[in-house]
Design a protein that fits this description.
The complex is a heterodimer of chains A (185) and B (211).
Chain A (H helix, E strand, L loop, with lengths): L10 H8 L3 H23 L2 H18 L9 H21 L12 H9 L3 H7 L3 H12 L4 H8 L3 H29 L1
Helix pairs in contact in A: 1-2, 2-3, 2-4, 2-7, 3-4, 4-8, 6-9, 7-9, 8-9
Chain B lengths: L7 H8 L5 H13 L1 H18 L8 H10 L11 H10 L10 E4 L2 H4 L9 H10 L11 H4 L8 E6 L3 H10 L4 E3 L5 E3 L3 H8 L7 E5 L1
Parallel strand pairs in B: 1-4, 1-5
Antiparallel strand pairs in B: 2-5, 3-4
The chains are: A mainly alpha (185), B alpha/beta (211).
Chain lengths: 185, 211
């Protein structure tokens, strides 16, 4: 059943990439890398893990693209793969015995690392993964309830409930952090 | 104030301004008089503002390159053209050339559509003969060279450029093109359009065929 109606701006490039055009796929990657990386980084709280998740997602997307039927927007399909890849990276990370030493980073990565070490990220990291994914998709990436439902495989009502809980718990944690900081001063 | 507290979805819809005016007015009255709901709304808004202030992050250029290089080969969907590529290497050797890349005009329905130089084999070969020797490197007699090629692919001309440059040049002219899994450029356009789009642009060696 086709659930997405309307023009997908990625359609022409997707069709070319489906036929094996790496140049077209590279343009799709360029168009979506920022949102994919932001999604993975906010969900995982780690620059390196996020880059691994995006790489894994793009390899999966490249291989699966010929089977993409256009039932949803390409971006919705792609971010769903990122969500799954991030989940897999998180699962593997739990089994990682010792934190690997960080690779040398370029300035843009260093900026990303700083962004991921703030109060917001710490509060996000404490949320249930389902809530975290929902609020990042909705409030950071600006996805609709329907798109998030499509990406996460749950009903729209559940998406809204997760956004409600994610936001309110986040605010409570940020408020707690602020109160703790103020009381320490 | 209404007795019943709004549920989570109603409060979210209120904060996101998704309620109709009547519902919104009623809920606003409740929230204004209910400390518990006021706090829930405050948290919803505070969480939203914190998240929406978060900047977008970029992958490093190095990582993007690594990712593109890490893409595995897919099963070859263009195996059909493999004999053509072999024929091309035999028929059109270019001394010191980089990889030979064929540009094919695939729009079979367009080819018969009455363009000057985009009909079947004979007229396609005529395109090659019309080319000047300066800008275009002829590969001998096109029709005889075309004999080993399958499905009526006829050599039109040789131009120069890596596959991505060819695609970019065609793309700038509004001609949809792609690089297939064997590094050849496939263009969906008429021969004349491709010839015009590539005139004097790319460097490197590539042979242009029409079907």
């Amino acid at each position: 059943m086709r659930t997405f109606t309307g023009m997908d701006p990625d359609d022409a490039l997707v069709r070319r990439a489906q036929r094996g055009d790496r140049f077209a796929f590279e343009r799709l990657v360029e168009a979506h890398q920022q949102r994919m990386y932001t999604l993975a980084a906010r969900v995982l709280g780690s620059r390196e893990d996020a880059a691994d998740a995006v790489q894994d997602a793009l390899v999966r997307a490249w291989l699966a693209l010929p089977k993409f039927r256009g039932d949803a927007r390409f971006s919705t399909w792609l971010y769903r793969i990122v969500v799954n890849a991030a989940h897999d990276v998180r699962t593997k990370r739990r089994d990682r015995p010792v934190e690997e030493p960080p690779d040398p980073v370029d300035p843009r990565d260093r900026f990303a690392e700083q962004e991921l070490s703030g109060e917001l990220q710490r509060a996000l990291d404490e949320l249930d993964e389902g809530y975290r994914v929902a609020v990042v998709l909705y409030d950071v990436l600006g996805c609709s309830y329907a798109e998030i439902a499509e990406m996460t495989g749950v009903p729209e009502g559940t998406v809204k409930s997760r956004i409600f809980r994610g936001r309110t718990e986040l605010a409570a944690r940020l408020g707690t952090t602020l109160e703790r900081t103020e009381s320490n001063d | 104030m209404t007795e019943k507290h709004p549920d989570q979805l109603e409060l979210l819809a209120y904060v996101e301004e998704e309620l109709d005016p009547g519902q919104r007015r009623e809920l606003a009255e409740h929230v204004a008089a209910c400390p518990s709901c006021t706090e829930q709304v405050r948290r919803l808004e505070a969480g939203r503002e914190a998240l929406r202030a978060a900047p977008m992050l970029d992958l490093s250029e190095d990582r993007k390159q690594t990712i593109m290089w890490s893409l595995p080969d897919r099963p070859d969907r263009w195996a059909f053209f493999r004999p053509v590529k072999r024929a091309l290497v035999v028929a059109a050797p270019v001394a010191g050339a980089a990889a030979l890349i064929g540009v094919f005009i695939l729009a079979g329905t367009q080819l018969g559509g009455g363009g000057d130089d985009d009909s079947e084999g004979g007229e396609a070969a005529q395109v090659a003969e019309d080319e000047g020797a300066g800008q275009t490197k002829r590969q001998g007699a096109p029709e005889s060279e075309s004999v080993p090629l399958r499905d009526g692919l006829i050599l039109v001309r040789t131009v120069q450029g890596p596959a991505t440059a060819i695609v970019r040049a065609l793309d700038e002219e509004g001609i949809e093109a792609e690089v297939d899994s064997e590094g050849r450029v496939i263009a969906d356009a008429r021969a004349g359009e491709v010839r015009a789009a590539l005139a004097g642009r790319p460097r490197g060696d590539v042979s242009v065929y029409v079907k």
